[in-house]
User: What shape does this take?
Amino acid sequence: QKEVEQNSGPLSVPEGAIASLNCTYSDRGSQSFFWYRQYSGKSPELIMSIYSNGDKEDGRFTAQLNKASQYVSLLIRDSQPSDSATYLCAVGPGGGEKLTFGTGTRLTIIP
Amino acid sequence: GAVVSQHPSWVICKSGTSVKIECRSLDFQATTMFWYRQFPKQSLMLMATSNEGSKATYEQGVEKDKFLINHASLTLSTLTVTSAHPEDSSFYICSAPLAPQQFFGPGTRLTVL
Assistant: This one.
């Protein structure tokens, strides 16, 4: 069974610091990797996607993928209170096929 | 980016009634859509894959006779919760793929009294 593992948290980070979120997955054939942010009572919002090994940066967000270790991470620099949310890691076979979600990590940014 | 809408955004119904939830891709066509359910403080659980022109594919443990899915067109999928009971109260979210990503609807909060 395909599994995606995340530390459920909560993870508390001071405002302005770097938040580091981690995710591991079991299916070696996975080709697409996503980080979604979900505020309470809202639908998930895509913040990063990554498809090849290495780092991908977008503003304050950096996604890192290591397929050999089956590991994907998300770094949030200069954390803001508005970053407080649950972050879901999702993994898929590629091509827009169905995703497997982790249980999510609840992040709290402390002012 | 691509937009997916859901209707209604919330619904309250009595036990035993049926509720229909619509999912629409507004600016792209989707031969496949996905239906998820999320209970409080839990992650998204895929219920089924909706396929335009053919039967839906249900995940293990999901009752196909209770959760009826119809993919009526390339932009519309519906989920009907039949004979709803309080344990069906949840947040239902659909998504539609536009490769390589999936775009999520805003969700429907169902409360069964």
Summary: Chain A touches chain B at residues 32, 34, 36, 41-46, 49, 51, 88, 92, 94-104 (CB under 8 Å). The mean pLDDT of chain A is 94.
